[in-house]
Amino acid sequence: MNKQEAAAAFRDLAFFLELAEDTPLRIRTYAHASKTIAQSVDGFEKQAMTGHLRHLAGIGKEAEEAIATFYRTGQLPLLEELRHRFPPTLLELKAIPGLGVKRIKALYDELGVDSAVSLAQACEHNRIALLKGFGPKIQENILDGLEYIRSFQGLRLLNRVYETSCPLREYMAKAPGLWRLDLTGSLRRGRELVRNIDLLACAEKPDAVIEWFLAYPGKTEVRGRDASRASMLLELAIPADLRIVPPEEYPFALAHFTGSNVHNQALRTRAEARGLKLTEHGLFQENGTPLACRDEVALYAALGLPYIPPELRENMGELALKRTPELVSMRDFRGLIHCHTTYSDGLNSIVEMASAAQGKGYHYIVITDHSQSAVYANGMTPARVLEQRSEIDAINRTLTDFQIIQGIESDIREDGSLDYEPEILAKFEVVLASIHTSHEMPADAMTRRLLKAIQNPYTNAIAHPTGRLLLSRKGYSFNFDKVFQACAAHRVAIEINANCRRLDLDWRYLQHAKSRGVKFMVGPDAHSLERLDGVSYGIGMARKGALGPKDLLNSMEKEELLAWCKAKRP
DNA sequence: GCCGTTTTCGGCCCGACTGTTTTCAGTCG
Hints:
By secondary structure, the chain is of the alpha/beta class.
């Protein structure tokens, strides 16, 4: 019997006893027994088997017997009994910072949360923010905790790694004798999930730059170094790796370490077909003579290719491009579509959201609070809709060069209908439809549900169309092609939700949808001022999907957007 | 439940911190 396993059994026992509201002191006894076992030395097991543990502090009759039983039989009858009484998956929740037994019990009793998966779902429905004794901050912390746990598997959400990389890059820019520094790897390619921060540099004295790198105040651990490389851990155990190469190799190393592997492989094959050899060190002729390239543009040109932006380097057809595509950027964005306010589950008022958006240079904001059936999100009754309309009208009268547009994020019911009568839907200038309930439908039922929502004459866009939550929930299954075709036929845009837990629709499907004639919109899905800038992650996904400004509703000025939305109405 | 006896029951770890609530509960180290 491994003592770690034994200690874990007693720890679990203490946990379940507390859930069962046993006496605090008995709980403490078993928790203490767990610690005693974990810290025990050689010979403990023998003593335990023979039931001679009373000499140890805090081990009395009951604990001694339980430990003896466990070492003899491998079982704890009391624990087995409690495991039948409570779902064993409740134990997963203990690992989440900020969740103790009291809160776990409350979540279990009040919301039926019994695993990490159902906890993530409860957060997604905002049910924890609204639970007595909890709140938005605790919900946020729980979501962070869930992500943190999964971070041990190595993949993290893009925003977390990107935000960690920014201060590091600012710091590195001041490194002594630094000539050049670039992000590489999947972070440079803007992938939705990223493992680490990869940096490439070239410098007068590589040693000095490596010293500087490892002296970064944000590091938690140095993992290793040599003459040209160094690796360390940052907050949340995010690895940061630096590699230094000679200037003449820089463009080749930059391309190589940006990847992806499959893109690199395709480039090498292309080089070989031209009698060239491409490596991370250079591009060589058959006789070994290197071909100099001053930058990546020159490198791609040497292979007869237009410059391929890092986002597209996924070997998804980019080598067939005849010229560098125009990718959408922040500069093309005229308005923010899909924002929440205190009218439903947002944290800021309409006027706060609007003035922040105007301050950032946008020309309009489309407020889309939750609809009435989204009770968990404080969805708006028809009366509240009218109230919001008059508030928006009043604020708009005070604004110049900016407009607040009243939209709605209307729930798609199980039968595919939207949850307001047409008279109410007609009052909104922009209608987003989205699914928040009954995710677990069979694919053809879900397809029918979505098709009906798309056919609704008031629907302008389908928000977060697959409902996936990165690192915690797969999207629902449906027939993508049928949905894309219906969207094109009924003038319904598809959202690229910019929330980094969603980034939904997945960029991999954007070209498929576009080929069917679908338009898109990037939605920050902002529930607070801080999240308005998160729209940039959605733009990143649109770029990965090779979308240009004309593919997105956000590039439209407000008049054009309103006309586009209105044109299909009865 | 365990301990330590003034031998048969009274006492047992708490302060910082966070978030919710508005004076406190829960978690964590």
